[in-house]
Amino acid sequence: MDQPKEKTPYSLNSKKVADATKSWLHKRGVTVEEIAELVMFLQQKYYPNLTMEECVHNVEQVLTKREVQNAVLTGIQLDILAEQGALIPELQDMISHDEGLYGVDEILAFSIVNVYGSIGFTNYGYVDKLKPGVLERLNDKSLGPINTFLDDIVGAIAASASSRIAHRKQAERELDNGGEFDEEDLN
Amino acid sequence: MDQPKEKTPYSLNSKKVADATKSWLHKRGVTVEEIAELVMFLQQKYYPNLTMEECVHNVEQVLTKREVQNAVLTGIQLDILAEQGALIPELQDMISHDEGLYGVDEILAFSIVNVYGSIGFTNYGYVDKLKPGVLERLNDKSLGPINTFLDDIVGAIAASASSRIAHRKQAERELDNGGEFDEEDLN
Amino acid sequence: MDQPKEKTPYSLNSKKVADATKSWLHKRGVTVEEIAELVMFLQQKYYPNLTMEECVHNVEQVLTKREVQNAVLTGIQLDILAEQGALIPELQDMISHDEGLYGVDEILAFSIVNVYGSIGFTNYGYVDKLKPGVLERLNDKSLGPINTFLDDIVGAIAASASSRIAHRKQAERELDNGGEFDEEDLN
Amino acid sequence: MDQPKEKTPYSLNSKKVADATKSWLHKRGVTVEEIAELVMFLQQKYYPNLTMEECVHNVEQVLTKREVQNAVLTGIQLDILAEQGALIPELQDMISHDEGLYGVDEILAFSIVNVYGSIGFTNYGYVDKLKPGVLERLNDKSLGPINTFLDDIVGAIAASASSRIAHRKQAERELDNGGEFDEEDLN
């Protein structure tokens, strides 16, 4: 990759990329509400008053981030191509069998978590091991679709939304106590 | 680390952390303008109309991010302790000699770059090798202060500000063309 | 940091760094056996015949890696300095209270896990949340010592040893089936 | 992904994956010698006696690492599918135009560099910006093939081989001085 020169005729359409991200998550059977439930699972013990509405909102905000969109689209693409048997044989084998030593799925997940800082790592690892809610279904190999990337991606989005909440709750606490806060850090 | 329980008596004061970050960069002899010059060095060929004012603004916004503040304070702290000879002998040797196989300085730098996504990696690596402007001075071992962490951190802040500019310039382009844009992605 | 010029008078003594790593883990009350127990906790369900001897061996091998040694020494150093109250006040507050938004402890942990590839991320996150065995004691804030970095580091070493085992078990399986294997990938 | 249960009928064939990696690099027009030339470009000033034979050997050893093979195959796969126009339209646009805000190519590159520790980050960023030797050809958009992933991957392999050399040269130096060295750290 290289940074875009300003006069190139091709032009990225960010809205299309954002819309495709939502649309493909939906086509692959994952709702924002299901991801929000993972967030609730992760954050309830820290913020007992946390509402599902807040969880949904935070997931939606995570999905506006370009790095997240890139990882979602790339991961879903590889899952789909594996379902179609369209990959290089050795890669096909590893992705369609969710090979434990493959690891590129974790790498994409990690690129999502990272956008809200390192505090999301442990939440990601935790839901990825426990596989609560939607993650159990995505990880069920008997169901047909290949979700080698998608389960890690969904867990990573939930972990990112959890980090976003942790940042914002801290800001609320400080503002309540008369503190100041810079808008930028809240995004 | 673990996420904060809501009723803990200790309370993080974000403004103090932000102020300490700016103050310590200043005490270690690095100005926002010098970091902005690195940004200009990195971005001028992509955006010929980029102004120093924009570069300064973007550096300042990067410095409002908590992950960046954490890395800056931790890195400067280790440099200072190495100057004082206050570290475990083996660590003292590695940090005071800027040992090539140490690598924790790059890890902290990487945690800064990451906040604005992977597109900043190459800018960071590039200025860290070329050492233009302020980085040449910070890396001059004959001058007294130990800046093993600081030079990597300053390069990483400049790379992050460059990524931030790339994201915003794209948004401007699309808005000029009648596109829509979600605020969140711009932070 | 910069790569070493060959004629520099200072000379890294790798054996000293390796010995200091073991010695400081010991001084901070963590035994190789306790870390090996975390590995057993993580890996037993995948390899029912796994022995404690193998777990101990794999932890010891992880500890020979330079990146691991760098992270261990740096993290323990920051814990010790926080105990002594010797840090910049804002950093002192965050590290001594294991502030949830600090995150540099996770970054160092991540640099350990990474050496054996991305497959260790989830194991790290899992033990860091569950805090089994030695991690419960390290995380007990009522006990006096500050282990803000050490608990993440110990979890990361266990996760890395788990990844190392996963790589080697695969090799054993393939060799048993008459396959070939390149030595390098086993390290 | 999840770790393999021991009795699964599918069985990863590591030799096939390793062979496919070499074979696909070759099919995409990249030789080990060209990557070795990048290593020489990066390391000559630190080790004036470094030979091309050593550079070739170190590149070959990097290519035996599973994480490297996974990233190479996945990246080349996405380049090929982009050439065939077989991707989701929004992803197709970003990969075929090497969109500056895409960044998954850097993420895969980073997963390669990481295997030999953080000291490779700057070497990767440096060659990725300067694009010496084979990287200039891979990055030439007028030539037909899409190498959005491949140029980053090749730069990352060269950076990793450079880190591997830095580790080994240090070991040689210490052994020459009568020091001891653990084999494991050399891999």
From TrEMBL, chains A, B, C, D:
A Pfam family recorded for this sequence: PgpA
YutG/PgpA domain segment(s): 31-166
CDD domains: PgpA
Domain of life: Bacteria
Name by which UniProt lists this protein: Phosphatidylglycerophosphatase A
Source organism (scientific name): Paenibacillus aceti
